[in-house]
Write a structure and sequence with these properties.
The protein is α+β, with helices and mostly antiparallel strands and 383 residues long. It has helices at 58-85, 88-101, 107-116, 131-142, 147-166, 196-209, 211-223, 227-232, 257-264, 289-296, 304-309, 319-332, 337-344, 349-352, 363-374, and strands spanning 6-7, 14-18, 25-26, 29-30, 32-40, 43-51, 238-239, 244-247, 251-254. Among the domains are: 6-85; 88-166; 196-303, hpI Integrase, Chain A (Orthogonal Bundle), CATH 1.10.443. The strands form 3 sheets. Strands 1-2-5-6 form a 4-stranded antiparallel sheet, covered by helices on one side. Strands 7-8-9 form a 3-stranded antiparallel sheet. Strands 3-4 form a two-stranded antiparallel sheet. A hairpin with a 3-residue loop joins strand 8 and strand 9. Helix 3 (107-116) crosses helix 5 (147-166), helix 6 (196-209) crosses helix 10 (289-296) and helix 7 (211-223) runs parallel beside helix 12 (319-332). The chain starts with 5 loop residues before the first strand and ends in a 9-residue tail after the last helix.
Length: 383
């Protein structure tokens, strides 16, 4: 045992403590134990050096502290060098591994990153990712995806960079930070959906240009599947006998027999993707053919600048097919908001709210029901 630490008057960060054992003496006085302290990773750390009777002194403790500080400085330099070369893909790998270790669901986030970011910005060191890079990614995605999807992708990127900072692998301003970007706002009200005549014209033209793209579009119109869900479908997901289509992470759902026949007609084995890129690889994005056909059918202006200036709610992209499916279903008056939410597999009823105005019934009744749902007072409202 030893008394309270006493600060050295000669060496900063060095302390000594006298023993409380009357029998432990050195050079005619109570033995002393020497310590030093320093900050490591922002926390105060104490290190016991040794006793005077063992040959230690204030000078030796000070020398050991100086060496420790030099090692920490070298370590900081190494970390800075590593941070300078840390790529977005490396940060993503570490982030997703951490999420899995925490028992969190990671498949959807990882898939969004792989599809939209990995081959576009992933090779860049985080330190070189600029606002211009992120704006370019955002604009590219907004051509084919809803603003809500873009927000999710940017949120994933922001989270993985923040994780690298917490993990001590990178330091600096997050290039995906909300304060640095003009974030796309989900604008669901008034979002365009196709008329039956437009849908038929689209399918007829796609069938001539790309039979596979036609089938994917027809599938989305018939089932409301997202493009990413369609990309992931394999032969194992099609239960021809039971008439069930298994959607990854969402469970199985019964679909019309003609949908099953179309999918089974591809003759894919259990491990093969139904809709394939060259060489049987998984698709990562919708072909530009879809946009070209939409322009040809006058759904959107031919001039690129005019298209870029369009209200995103009025554009027609592949996601419009899913929105059309939900809008037609709502207009039919055969489903409740809760049923529509289940069919669309929305995470929140607020995502389904955009279709309330399409369901036949009094506006005030529908608005009240949404409030009831949010309050947990009504699970399956009838309109």
């Amino acid at each position: 045992m030893a008394h309270k630490r006493v600060k050295s008057s000669r060496f900063p960060g060095v302390y000594w403590r006298e023993t409380t054992d009357p029998k432990r003496r050195h050079n005619g006085r109570p033995d002393r134990c020497y310590d030093y302290c320093l900050r490591e990773a922002g926390k105060l750390k104490w290190v016991a050096v040794g006793w005077a009777s063992e040959g230690f002194s204030e000078q030796k403790a000070a020398n050991m502290r100086r060496e420790a500080l030099e090692n920490l400085a070298r370590g900081d330099e190494v970390r800075k060098e590593q941070a300078a070369t840390l790529t977005l893909n490396a940060a993503a790998t570490a982030y997703f591994e951490w999420m899995e270790g925490e028992g969190k669901h990671v498949k959807q986030e990882r898939n969004r990153y792989d599809v939209h970011v990995r081959d576009v910005l992933g090779h860049l060191p985080v330190s070189t990712v600029s606002t211009a890079h992120v704006d370019s990614l955002k604009k590219r995605m907004l051509k084919t995806h809803a603003p809500a999807t873009v927000l999710k992708v940017l949120a994933t990127c922001r989270a993985l960079v923040n994780h690298a900072v917490r993990d001590g692998k990178w330091e600096g301003v997050n290039p995906f930070g909300r304060d640095r970007l003009k974030m796309p706002r989900p604008q669901n009200k008034g979002e365009r959906f196709l008329t039956p005549e437009e849908a038929r014209a689209l399918l007829e033209t796609l069938e001539k240009r790309s039979p596979q793209l036609h089938d994917m579009a027809w599938l989305s119109l018939k089932t409301g599947l997202r493009s990413t869900e369609i990309f992931r479908l394999t032969g194992a997901d099609v239960d021809a006998r039971g008439g069930v289509l298994w959607v990854t992470e969402k469970g199985g759902r019964r679909v019309a027999p003609d949908v099953i026949r179309m999918l089974a007609g591809y003759g894919r084995s259990a491990g093969e993707y139904i809709f394939q890129a060259r060489g049987g690889a998984k698709l990562k994005q919708i072909s530009d053919t879809f946009e070209r056909v939409c322009i040809e059918l006058k759904f959107m202006p031919e001039d690129p600048e005019e298209r870029a200036a369009m209200d995103t709610r009025k554009k027609v992209w592949f996601h419009t097919l899913r929105h059309t499916f939900a809008s037609w279903l709502a207009q039919s008056g055969t489903v409740t908001l809760q049923e529509l939410r289940d069919i669309m597999r929305h995470e929140s009823i607020t995502m389904t709210e955009r279709y309330a105005h399409l369901i036949p019934g009094k506006a005030e009744t529908k608005t009240a029901l949404i409030g009831n749902i949010l309050a947990g007072e009504e699970k399956e409202p009838r309109l």
